[in-house]
Amino acid sequence: MIFSFLKYLQPVNYFSLARNNGSFAFPKVEELPAVVLQQLEKDPCFYSEKAKSYDISWQALQKGYVGEVTTYQHFESLPLVDEYRFLHKYFHPIWCVYVLLLRLVSFKNPFREVSAFIKGRGAKRSNYLQHPLKYSDYGSFQSSLLEEKPLVSVIIPTLNRYEYLKDVLLDLESQDYQYFEVIVVDQSDPFQEDFYKGWKLDLSAIQQKEKALWLARNRAIKMAKGDYILLYDDDSRVDNDWITQHLKTLDFFKAEVSSGVSISTSGAEVPRNYSFFRVSDQLDTGNVLIKKEIFKTTGLFDRQFEKQRMGDGEFGLRVYLHGFLNVSNPYAKRLHLKVGSGGLREMGSWDAFRSQKWFTPRPIPSVLYLFRKYYGNHQAKLALLKMVPPSIIPYKFKKNKPMLLLGAILSVFLLPVILIQVDKSWDLSGKMLKEGDKIESL
Length: 442
What we know:
Elements: H1 6-9, H2 34-37, H3 49-62, H4 80-90, H5 93-105, H6 110-120, H7 144-148, E1 152-158, H8 162-173, E2 180-186, E3 203-207, H9 213-223, E4 228-232, E5 236-238, H10 242-253, E6 257-263, E7 278-279, E8 287-291, H11 293-298, H12 311-321, E9 326-336, H13 365-387, H14 401-413, H15 415-435
Parallel strand pairs: 1-2, 1-4, 2-3, 6-9
Antiparallel strand pairs: 4-8, 5-9, 6-8, 7-9
Helix pairs in contact: 4-6, 5-6, 13-15
Keywords: Glycosyltransferase, Transferase
Organism: Mesonia oceanica
EC number: 2.4.1.212
C-alpha cells in the first residue's frame, strides 16, 4: 500500500497489489512530466518527504495520469501522523474514525494513535476529483487504428430478453464503425431462431442449453474472428460512436483494454470518478474492449464464478497483474437498464453482498474466493468488516448514505445471523480455493 492505512479502507483494491513484475501502478514523482506536476496539489504539511512524494503519486493516479514512467517497486513506512493526515485529506471523517477504532481494538498504543489522529485533522479536505488531469488533444486525435479497420467481435450472452436484445442489435446496426461481427450466445428457453433473421449485421447466434454466463463468454471468445473482443450485455443501449470511442482510446493511450462506463438512467451524468480517463481499477464485462491476444496470456474467464458474482472483477485483476494497461473510458458509455427479468436475475443477485434469504451465505462465496485467493485471509476479513454491515440495507438504497449508516447500526443487532451467513460463505469459498480455478487457455 502506498499509504499503509489504505489497507483498512481499500483492502481489496487492484492497486494495493504489486504486479507480476514486482511493480505497483503508482508513478515515481520525479519522473512525472512538468505539465502533470502543475496540476497536482503539493502538500508541505506532511512530516516526511516520502509522504509528500507518495501523496503526489497517489493524486496522479487518482486524477487520471496514464503514462509510461517508472513506477514504485516498494514503499517505505511513514510516520503515524502522515498516515492519519492522508486519511483526513481524502476520506470522510466517519472513515477516519473507523480506522482509528480498528487500530485501537488491535492494541495499538492509544496515546500515539489518538495524538496522531488529532494532528492529522489539520489536513484540509481535498476536492481532487473536481480537477482531473486533462487530455485536450484527445478530441483532435486521428487514430491510425481506426484507419486500419481491424475486425471487432461483439460478444453478447443473452437469457430470455428478446425484447431488450432487439434494441441492442438496432444500436449496433447504427454504429459509425462498421467493421465488426456480432456473436450472440442465446440461453433462452424457448430459443427463438427466427429472431436473428433479417438483421443488417454480420450476426452469429449460438444456442446454448446450459445457462452459464462465463461458459457463454468463453465459448464466444474462442470462435471470435476479430483481433479485438468487445464484451456487451443484452439490456444496454449505446450511442452510434460506441465502438469508435473504444478503439480510439486504445490507440490514444497505447492500451490493451478500454473499460467503458455505465449509467442506469437515460440522460444521467457519468459518475464523477468515471468522468475522465484514468488507469482503471475495475473491468465490467457489460462494456469493455479487449485485445484478443490478452486472453492467450491471462487465460479465459474463471468458471468458478459461474452463477455467482465478480468473475469480471477477477479477470480484470489478472489483466492488471500481468501488466496490461486498462483505461477507464468516459466516452464509451452505455445505458444499463438492469431490467427485472432474464439475465443474471434468473441465476442470482445483482449484488455480491446482499443475501436473498436469512441464512444463505453473505457475501456470495465467489466474492470471498476472489478476495482470499489474491489478497489473503487478513485483507478478506477487513473487506468483510467494511462491506457487510452496509449490505443489510436493500439494494435500491445502495448509494443512500443515511440508509447505509442505518444498515451498519442494524448489523450490530443482527450480528448472530450475519456471523452464520459469513461463516457459510467462508467455508464454501475455502472449498473453491481447495478445488482451484477453472481457467481455460485460449
